[in-house]
Amino acid sequence: LGFGTLGEESRLPTRVVAARMTFALASVAFALFARNALSGVAELMGAFLTMTTSVLFPVAAYAGARRASGEPLGWCEALGLGAVFLVGVLLAASDAYRRMTAHH
Questions:
Q1: Do 75 and 46 touch, CB atoms closer than 8 A?
Q2: Which of 34, 7, 53 is nearest to 103 (CA)?
Q3: What tens digit of pLDDT does each residue of 15-74 get?
Q4: The pTM is what?
Q5: CA of 81: how far to CAs of 42, 63, 72, 90, in Å?
Q6: Which of 2-16, 42-56, 72-86 is modeled with the greatest confidence?
């Protein structure tokens, strides 16, 4: 998305500019439509980001580090990591649902 070096080129590629403009317009549109429920949106994002950084990312990082080291995961270890990841996704989804229904 245009992060990093441009090399010899002094202008951003058209698709990078288009991607940034699309993201900016989508963000503004979402902010306008969610202005009456901003506290609910902030709660959902906080819950999502907390679950991602505390459960989902560590599981994915551990599995990726093991794969990069060339040491394969055993089936029991892979099953355990998958279960932790799935429980994290389910908890995040149920928390999001609970928070959305509590505001109405």
A1: no
A2: 34
A3: 888 989 999 999 889 888 887 877 777 777 787 788 888 888 999 899 889 989 998 888
A4: 0.54
A5: 29, 8, 13, 14
A6: 72-86
* Whether the Cβ atoms of residue 95 and residue 51 lie closer than 8 Å to each other: yes
The sign of the CA dihedral 11, 15, 18, 22 is negative
Residue 1 banded pLDDT, cuts 50, 70, 90: very low
CA–CA dist 26, 86 (Å, integer): 29
The C-alpha atoms of residue 23 and residue 30 are separated, in whole angstroms, by 10
Residue 1 CA from chain centroid, whole number: 16
Q: Tell the burial category of 1 from Cβ atoms under 10 Å away from its Cβ (0-12, 13-18, 19+).
A: exposed
The structure tokens 């090399």 sit at 7
The whole-angstrom distance between residue 81's C-alpha and the CA centroid of its chain comes to: 18
User: Which residues are within 8 A (CB) of 96 and not within 5 positions of it... i.e. 6 or more apart?
Assistant: 44, 47, 48
